[in-house]
């Protein structure tokens, strides 16, 4: 071995790790951009890399674009604009050639074969399946988060734990890989040395390891993404984690063993290694597909420009203000609520309401993050109640003990014999949604370390400014977090609030309402330039996005607002009916009357559509979008740049909510266009593994991403895979200054993973182009003239 290669190989291993997106566990699932490791490249180059390492196409089939063009949904103008936006050498030269290419369906890409793939062809044994099953069985136990009754080699690192397991696992040898246990036992005792030895045995040059390593990590499916999450979590606290490097070493040991097992594939493998050493360059077909994808996005942007025809003036003091999460599902309810009266105003803000919380629910000391995963908690709250806490904990322990008794190796058989008939009755009740009562809310949350008076004022002022809610308050202001009531759904947390790290949003809303009603806060806000009238009351609530019911919490006594709250409940109930009727039109087999029942149906694979359809993010005063039907496809963030003196709120919006929205958009995009790699598979055959994720059937690789039923209605796509269009009402110079300050965020726009527009008085006024360049938009959002930006448009 050549130890001099070690730094280079470890650097390449690190790069391969960074090319893998994290997958969050089921108890706190949040959307993740599956192309997180490719955002430094544009779409054609990412397509070329992912074709090599994953064998996927990351745009739609040509026939889909052709159908959109035939239906008039993509116009010749959209195609011409898209052509002008792509300056790559292989870009189709003209519109006629581009349209002619539509009839040429390209073959599905094939990933570079692994040694296991080649050995499978040579020997007739499905080695990739053997690896998936063997490795998956070990990983399910090693990464278990409390589901299993026993975990192999607890406390050991992944590489050491796997060696201890694999050196005694006879399944590979039974499959025909003689001597594998001895091969594992003789492997180097560290992952780094194992990577070095295997790389040299496989004759991989330094230039080949970049995509060869990436290919092997992709081969491990969601297990490598879970390991990437472990690294993500460690780095949030300033530490690191070597699990992903360990998994790469494990997979390389398999390759090393299979090459020795099937020497007849040596020449074929040498060709693959040479291919890995070649540059990753997009093909003309991949560039053409990227142009077609851009054209589809231009068509959507054209529709947005037509819909947004100027800001509506703000009226007198409203009777009710309701702040919702920016989640696209809130857009439907906000329209329905505002339609109940001209004196109702809604607000959009990230659902954690600006509070960086970790929360301990009643009955546990385990703190759950309730803030965007890009941030670290700075406050800890709890819902512990002295009168009920002990009883809650005893009940929880009893439930856990009963569950373990039912699952234990011996008692499980006796349990089935004795209790099976009773559980049959329970299954019938669950199937018919009988006996499903309302969930009892935890006691009002409180901060474990109370804020001082000065901290209360500073926190409240910061949040109110970020919400653009510093003046003109209604007598009653609702702060509405959101969650989703579903049954028998391992991906339940994915329906909850992404800004609350996959938890429901009422904790943040209740704490903020209490803070804003606090007399100490009220007394100190005038010194911050914010005055809340004495008659202003903040009330927290929870929007159930599956049933469109709103729960309000009576955490603060409000004898003077009884009539206001009663009227608000009537408006909310009426708006819920309107929202259910609109959403029912999209849900297969649903009516306005049956939407709520889907939340209780444990056999329902589509209780709601989640964020399917998301395509735009608008940060502007509500007047820019009030009365506009955006179809539940837009994230709506309230923002008034005139009240943002130093553009600190603008910076926060662009670097946090916009990035989170892009993750959501791209997760839906990836799960739609490349479901085999970035999708969660078929809900009907899911099995939960370790509390970490799901597999299809009884084993194999972990399936990250969204299940197919989340983006497809059984006949056609329910999600239109478009990269997010971000519309911000602010001076272009201010937006550019934020991007220049944050290169990773700028890269998302420069490389086309999001589109950016500046609004002016509620209309699309400028389109952003790579390099901090702006071009004026026409009345329908199109770039003026040829689409090429004048040098004078560049922001200094």
Keywords for this entry:
single chain; 796 residues; alpha/beta; disordered C terminus
Main sheet summary: 6 strands, mixed
Uncertain runs with pLDDT below 50, 5 residues or more?
Answer: 784-796
Number of helices: 31
Supply Rg: 28 Å
Inertia-based shape: globular
Mean pLDDT: 90
Strand runs, count: 19
Output the structural class.
Answer: alpha/beta
Strand content: 5-15%
Strand order of the biggest β-sheet? 11-10-16-17-18-19
Helix content: 40-55%
Q: First CA to last CA: what distance?
A: 52 Å
Structural commentary:
With 796 residues, the protein is of the alpha/beta class. 45% of the residues lie in helices and 12% in strands. Among the domains are: 3-35 and 112-277, no CATH class; 316-383 and 442-607, no CATH class; 389-423; 731-793, no CATH class. It has a 6-stranded mixed sheet with strand order 11-10-16-17-18-19, with helices on both faces. Strand 18 and strand 19 form a beta hairpin. The longest helix is centred in the middle third of the chain and has 24 residues, at 284-307. The chain starts with 5 loop residues before the first helix and ends in a 20-residue tail after the last strand.
């Amino acid at each position: 071995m050549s130890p001099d290669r070690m730094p280079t190989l470890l650097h390449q291993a690190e790069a391969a790790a960074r090319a893998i997106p994290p997958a969050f566990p089921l108890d706190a699932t949040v959307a993740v951009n599956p192309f997180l490791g490719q955002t430094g490249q544009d779409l054609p180059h990412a397509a070329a890399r992912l074709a090599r390492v994953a064998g996927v196409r990351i745009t739609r089939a040509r026939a889909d674009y052709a159908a959109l063009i035939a239906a008039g949904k993509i116009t010749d103008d959209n195609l011409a604009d898209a052509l002008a936006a792509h300056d790559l050498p292989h870009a189709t030269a003209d519109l006629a050639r581009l349209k002619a290419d539509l009839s040429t369906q390209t073959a599905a890409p094939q990933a570079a074969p692994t040694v296991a793939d080649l050995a499978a062809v040579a020997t007739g044994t499905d080695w990739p399946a053997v690896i998936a099953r063997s490795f998956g069985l070990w990983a399910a136990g090693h990464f278990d988060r409390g589901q299993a009754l026993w975990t192999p080699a607890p406390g050991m690192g992944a590489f050491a734990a796997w060696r201890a397991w694999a050196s005694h696992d006879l399944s590979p040898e039974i499959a025909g890989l003689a001597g594998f246990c001895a091969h594992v036992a003789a492997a180097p005792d560290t992952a780094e040395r194992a990577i070095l030895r295997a790389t040299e045995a496989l004759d991989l040059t330094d230039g080949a390891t970049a995509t060869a390593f990436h290919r092997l990590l992709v081969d491990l499916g969601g297990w490598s993404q879970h390991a990437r999450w472990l690294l993500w979590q460690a780095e949030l606290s300033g530490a690191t984690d070597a699990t992903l490097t360990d998994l790469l070493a494990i997979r390389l040991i398999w390759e090393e063993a299979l090459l020795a097992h099937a020497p007849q594939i040596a020449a074929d493998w040498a060709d693959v290694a040479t291919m890995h050493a070649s540059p990753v360059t997009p093909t003309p077909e991949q560039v053409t597909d990227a142009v077609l994808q851009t054209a589809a996005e231009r068509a959507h942007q054209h529709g947005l420009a037509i819909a947004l025809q100027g800001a509506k003036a703000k009226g007198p003091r409203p009777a009710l203000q309701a702040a919702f999460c920016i989640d696209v599902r809130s857009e439907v309810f906000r329209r329905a609520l505002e339609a109940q009266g001209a004196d109702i105003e809604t607000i959009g803000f990230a659902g954690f309401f600006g509070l960086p919380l970790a929360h301990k629910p009643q009955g546990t000391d385990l703190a759950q993050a309730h803030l965007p995963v890009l941030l670290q908690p700075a406050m800890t709250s709890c819902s512990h109640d002295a009168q009920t806490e002990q009883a809650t904990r005893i009940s929880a322990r009893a439930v856990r003990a009963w569950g373990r008794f039912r699952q234990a190796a011996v008692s499980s058989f006796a349990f089935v014999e004795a209790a099976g008939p009773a559980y049959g009755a329970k299954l019938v009740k669950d199937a018919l949604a009988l006996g499903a009562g309302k969930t009892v809310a935890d006691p009002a949350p409180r901060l474990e370390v109370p804020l001082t008076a000065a901290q209360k004022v500073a926190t409240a002022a910061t949040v109110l400014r970020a919400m653009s809610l510093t003046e003109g308050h209604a007598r009653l202001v609702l702060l509405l977090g959101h969650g989703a009531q579903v049954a028998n759904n391992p991906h339940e947390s994915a329906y909850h609030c992404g800004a609350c790290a996959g938890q429901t949003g009422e904790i943040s809303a209740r704490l903020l309402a209490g803070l804003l009603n606090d007399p100490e806060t009220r007394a100190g806000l005038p010194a911050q330039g914010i005055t809340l009238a004495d008659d202003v009351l903040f009330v927290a609530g929870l929007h159930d996005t599956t049933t469109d019911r709103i729960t309000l919490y009576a955490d603060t006594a409000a004898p003077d607002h009884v009539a206001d709250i009663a009227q608000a409940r009537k408006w909310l109930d009426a708006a819920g009916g309107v929202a259910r009727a609109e959403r029912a039109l999209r849900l297969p087999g649903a009516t306005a009357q049956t939407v709520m029942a889907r939340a209780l149906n444990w056999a329902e694979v589509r209780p709601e559509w989640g964020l399917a359809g998301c395509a735009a993010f608008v940060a502007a005063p509500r007047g820019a979008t009030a009365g506009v039907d955006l179809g539940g496809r837009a994230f709506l963030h309230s923002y008034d740049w005139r009240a943002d003196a130093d553009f600190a709120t603008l910076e926060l919006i662009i670097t946090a909510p916009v990035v989170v929205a892009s993750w959501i958009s791209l997760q839906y995009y990836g799960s739609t266009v490349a479901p085999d790699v970035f999708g969660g598979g078929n809900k009907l055959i899911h099995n939960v593994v370790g509390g970490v994720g799901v597999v299809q059937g009884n084993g194999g690789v972990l399936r990250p991403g969204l299940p197919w039923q989340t983006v497809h209605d059984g006949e056609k796509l329910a999600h239109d895979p478009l990269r997010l269009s971000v519309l911000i009402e602010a001076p272009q110079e201010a937006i550019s200054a934020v991007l220049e300050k944050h290169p990773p965020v700028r890269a998302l726009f420069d490389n086309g993973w999001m589109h950016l527009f500046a609004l002016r008085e509620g209309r699309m006024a400028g389109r952003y182009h790579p390099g901090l360049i702006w071009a004026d938009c026409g009345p329908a959002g199109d770039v003026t003239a040829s689409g090429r930006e004048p040098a004078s448009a560049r922001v200094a």
